[in-house]
Amino acid sequence: MRQPSVRARRVAAASVSLVVAAGVAACGPEDSDAKGSGGDSAPHKGGTLTILNSQPQEDFDPARLYTSGGGNVPSLVFRTLTTRNRENGEAGAKVVPDLATDTGRPNKDATVWTYTLKKGLKYEDGTPITSADIKYGIERSFAPELSGGAPYLRDWLAGAADYQGPYKDKKGLAAIETPDERTIVFHLNKPEGEFPYLATQTQFAPVPKSKDTGTRYESHPVSSGPYKVVKNENDGEHLVLERNPNWSAQTDAERKAYPDTIDVRSGLDSSVINQRLSASQGADAAAVTTDTNLGPAELAKVSGDRKLAARVGTGHFGYTNYLAFNPKVKPFDDPKVRQAIAYAVDRSSVVNAAGGSALAEPATTFLPNQKSFGYTPYDPFPAGQAGNPAKAKELLAQAGHKNGLTLTLTHSNSKDFETSPEIATAVQDALKKAGITVKLQGLEENDYKDKIHSVKSEPGLFLAHWGADWPSGGPFLAPIFDGRQIVKDGANFNTGLLNDKSVNDEIDAINKLTDLDAAARRWGALDKKIGDKALVVPLFHPVYKRLYGSDVKNIVISDWTGVLDVSQVAVK
């Protein structure tokens, strides 16, 4: 459920990368937040873990994947310079070393980052992993035929904007230096204190140049992680992973790699996945899903069964659903009209439309309510959970609309409980109490995305959502509110078309900080400053509920991904 992010925008989920396959967020499994939950005995090695998914693991090439923290299934095969901390809840939102000895050493202004590789790193064939392999892996991600990954490297690396990859330009990127086999240095065109987060993306996975087969590499990428690919059918629809004999736990403190085999089966209907996990018959007893949530009706059934309820993992990914305004379209050019709508919204009805309080939490901040993002509680237009239609009418009268307004709300027809008809209807009903007549414009998903992400066609009022590329305020606020990221002839995500120098300058100032806790506090303050402008109305943060099989043990769900981490799971 992750949403695309900077410029070339990433798939919503993020879609994202949440892209849904990337995951969701976390507080830990039901009734437990302790690592190792999900069974009554210690986890052990062996067995087969089955993963039942609706979306295939397409483009299984580290250059083409758009993942957060290295992804879930991908991180079993691809190690990166840094990775997410594999712990429950808040602790899991931290970035930690992976192939590197630390999370990176910046120069004084964070424009140069240096990494040293751990000793003894090997590929699945036993050959050593070198810094040159990581440099090459990054360079090939620039090749047009291997597009799809996060766009940050093209934006951040010095002189990389027009690079076309090693197949066309064999000189490589001068911005990446490898003075020896264990050292790699990155030169950036501007300060980036969050570079350690970026280094978790799969583009930082090593690729041996001699084994690169271009667009065919995805069928058998060379593993640097605990598992290697032994089968990839129908572009990731059926993926089988087996142990990499040359992976060493001594160099990898994060991945537990308990099962002998990982069997990923995709293209399944979400209701079928939940039925199979609920029944837990045969191989399904040792099964999980990394992309399928329980819906409202399914959750109601599960909640009535104590044993089933004990097999539900709960997660909170960094993700916000909101109402977006285009202030270039009347009457939304008037701040009082936008404020009136903010007061009129009934978040309790919106939450109910999203599946109830078990699946959605009301939001008054754009940033998700997690510490790593810099969450700072605020509500610039406090109207309680049910809205304040009287205050809304007062503001409308001040704006010259004492007899009310008639507006159009654009939404998607997808049944996603986010930008779908249910949410739009809840907003429509609430605004009616304030004298605002709302006409609904439902569009098919592709038409909806094309319309809302084009500066030329963006409607005045529409439903939107955003997910984080990593758990920080940077990739959350900058794509939506940095005026320099307004894209006039492509996919634009700065929905409010905000180009405020003070906001842009603060984004630059925070990006210079390498103290991520200090940066988080600044992101929270910036969120409040932007919130006062009423360019969006935060509606809710989703909560993710996912079943797992009865023989699955060691459940870990972090605030980075919000979903069960398959690198930690053991099976009976």
Automatic annotation (TrEMBL):
SUPFAM superfamilies: Periplasmic binding protein-like II
Region (Disordered): 28-59, 206-230
Ranges for domain Solute-binding protein family: 94-484
Stored InterPro entries: Peptide/Ni-bd, SBP_5, SBP_5_dom
Keywords per UniProt: Signal
Basic and acidic residues bias locations: 209-219
Signal peptide positions (record): 1-26
Gene3D superfamilies xref list: Dipeptide-binding Protein, Domain 3 (3.10.105.10), Periplasmic binding protein-like II (3.40.190.10)
Domain of life of the organism encoding this protein: Bacteria
Protein name: ABC transporter substrate-binding protein
Source organism per UniProt: Streptomyces achromogenes
